[in-house]
């Protein structure tokens, strides 16, 4: 099993715009017996209520949405580029239809109850939900944003306090 070390959120040095939009992330909720992960490229990090937070947005049609509703915690996992195909699988297959983790060849880990992440990840943020908000088209100041919702399936935003950051330990040799 690969080793991770805990780091403080202030130790993160990644460009967060590249990390989310270009590298992508897996949003995971549930426990090892019943979890799902979906690939996401929308979200962010910051400070809110004097706490380090991360946020992600999920459509109500996704299995991950159901699990985010049921659990108080979630994880965001970021991978090295060689796992791009795994992220593509997790973003295009439903967890309702089979074991996409096996298909993607990634290994779920749950070392704390209700916080599943992946052995192959290079960075993991464990989060505790502190706020949810349903996006409402009445709030779109730019009318073109409605184009993202032809089915009117507006995202729910989940803001989570970052409770633990794990960074992959570089292996010597």
Describe the structure.
With 173 residues, the protein is of the alpha+beta class. It has one domain (4-166): Pnp Oxidase, Chain A, CATH 2.30.110.10. 17% of the residues lie in helices and 42% in strands. It has helices at residues 16-22, 63-70, 84-92, 100-104; strands at residues 4-7, 25-31, 34-40, 43-48, 51-58, 73-78, 108-112, 115-118, 123-134, 156-168. The strands form two sheets. Strands 1, 2, 3, 4, 5, 6, 9 and 10 form an eight-stranded antiparallel β-sheet that branches. A hairpin with a 2-residue loop joins strand 7 and strand 8. The longest helix has 9 residues, at 84-92. The model has no long low-confidence stretch (mean pLDDT 94).
Brief synopsis:
The chain is of the alpha+beta class and 173 residues long. It has helices at residues 16-22, 63-70, 84-92, 100-104; strands at residues 4-7, 25-31, 34-40, 43-48, 51-58, 73-78, 108-112, 115-118, 123-134, 156-168. The longest helix has 9 residues, at 84-92.
Query: Largest sheet, if any?
Result: 8 strands, antiparallel
Rg calc: 16 Å
Q: Which structural class should the secondary elements be placed in?
A: alpha+beta
How far is the N terminus from the C terminus?
Answer: 16 Å
Oligomer designation: single chain
Number of domains: 1
Strand content: 35-45%
| CATH fold descriptor | Pnp Oxidase, Chain A
Count of extended strands: 10
Order of helices and strands: EHEEEEHEHHEEEE
The low-confidence runs, each spanning 5 or more residues with pLDDT under 50, are: none
The total of helices stands at: 4
Helix content: 10-25%
Architecture (CATH level 2) name:
Roll
The CATH top-level class label: Mainly Beta
């Amino acid at each position: 099993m690969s080793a991770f070390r805990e780091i403080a959120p202030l130790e993160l040095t990644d460009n967060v715009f590249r990390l989310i939009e270009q590298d992508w992330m897996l949003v995971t909720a549930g426990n090892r017996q019943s979890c799902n992960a979906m690939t996401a490229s929308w979200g962010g990090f910051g400070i809110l209520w004097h706490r380090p937070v991360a946020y992600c947005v999920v459509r109500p049609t996704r299995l991950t949405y159901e699990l985010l509703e049921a659990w108080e915690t979630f994880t965001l996992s970021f991978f090295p580029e060689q796992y791009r195909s795994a992220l593509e699988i997790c973003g295009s297959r439903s967890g309702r239809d089979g074991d996409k983790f096996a298909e993607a060849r990634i290994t779920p880990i749950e070392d704390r109850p209700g916080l599943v992440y992946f052995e192959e990840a290079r960075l993991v943020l464990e989060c505790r939900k502190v706020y949810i908000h349903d996006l409402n088209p009445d709030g779109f100041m730019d009318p073109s944003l409605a184009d993202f919702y032809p089915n009117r399936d507006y995202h729910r935003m989940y803001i989570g306090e970052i409770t633990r950051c794990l960074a992959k330990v570089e292996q010597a040799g």
